[in-house]
Amino acid sequence: MSEGSQIDITLEQTGDYEFRIRFEGSAVDDLITDEPPPLGHDNGPNPSRLLLAAVANCLSASLLFAMRKFKNQPGALRTTAIAHTERDGDGRWRIPRAEVVLHLAEPAAQYQNLDRILAQFENFCVVTQSVRAGIAVAVRVCDAKGVTVHEA
Q1: Do 71 and 32 belong to one domain?
Q2: I want to staple 67 with a disulfide (CB 3.0 to 4.6 A). Which of 29, 40, 72, 88 is the partner?
Q3: Average pLDDT for residues 117-123, to the nearest whole number?
Q4: What integer pLDDT is reported at residue 88 of this predicted model?
């Protein structure tokens, strides 16, 4: 992403709550989104799922970038994420928090400078840092043995 870059998308309704999203200026295939029943037909992810996927994906990419910057070969990272929904004071659904767990491919001792990496990788995640103003995003990194090596 470059300084002051712009992200353009176009949504076109193709069904009740179904939309085709076009990612302008890119070779990315269109994406179908839809709401689950009873509103939609669950023909694609809904905006809440996309938001959670964006947070988890950005954190994963940021961790991989930071690990590679310190000359690690991180292996295949696996990330799981859960969003919690609840009604706000006006009775409207909101996502007040999300939990993201990043699973490293190797035991923590296999990585160089892991403490430094874990102290800074979240700061480079554009999406997570952008949504944290409205959504508390808990982040946890686990190694291949299931040991939590970072929690924020």
Answers
A1: no
A2: 72
A3: 96
A4: 95
